[in-house]
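input
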Amino acid sequence: MALFTEREIRGTVVFVALALLVILGFLFVRPRVDPEAARSAAAELETRRDSLRLTPFDPNTVGYDELREMGLTRHEAVSLVKYRAARKIFRIPEDVALCYGIGDSLFRALRPYIRIGRKYAVAPREYRPGRIVAEPIAVEPFRVDTVSARYLRAIGALSRRQAKVFIDRRDLSGFYDMEDVRECFVVSDSLASALEPYLIFPERKPKPWEQPVELNTADSATLRSIAGIGERTVGPIMAYRERLGGFHSPEQLAEVPGVTERNYETILKQIYCDSCKIRKIDVNFASPNVLGRHPYIASRTLRKLLKTRQLKGGWSTAEEMIEDHILTPEEAARLSPYLGFSRKADPTDE
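output
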């Protein structure tokens, strides 16, 4: 019994023959790339670029006549308007390249002139939507000490709440440099960098030299009033002062983390230290915890001190501690203002 009828065999042969003819047609009829024609087309596009009269435009609002005035052909202008009529929105400049009538060459020419309005533009990641206003005005240099919250909102920098925080912080302690601005928590690093070219700062009036601030008794508000000390450095200065037991020399501020060399030179002109305010450590009776908290007493030094004190009972001067190899001369010089020597204990006392 035959698997296929004679009619089915004839049909299969005819189909295979037609398929071969179609494949051969694609192979031989396919247009070949003409290098000369490609060069001619490129030259035509370059000439076209020179004839364009482009001006900044928003593809979401530009009209047909404006596009034609800029040098676009009727086909190109209609394709952009039709794209928008289909309820599609241009959110980034590259969306213009999706219009069927806008070729790559034309798009490259249009790209520098495309301006997407804030209403449809994709907001940068570093800004929150609350900072975007409907029609932001162009930013111009402005004085930080007189700028209003309304202006900060109008340029699209801050939201209503953030602008109020900025102004309150400015009125409380002032902004005198970029470090002060960056310390305001509503100002991100990216926003500070964007605003920096436009900020005009008032001149900070330093404290008169005849009325310097005493570093060991000043509270945080008094320290903050010193030119060169900001919100970020007040805390570390007070913490280091507590660990030391007080500053015996203004130069010790250079040891505080966060105090830059520039600020250090400015601060020195406005402060002094009263050595009578220093809290001394009784080296003969202080507990290990008290001794270990002092920044000038290293762990190695503390172990030798406690071991020798237990055997010897204590010391009367820093020179004795040098002789017993507890302190080096350099360590003794740094620690001397902070060491107190009460009557040393006698190990033989009962």
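quick obs: Residues 6-29 form the longest helix (24 residues).
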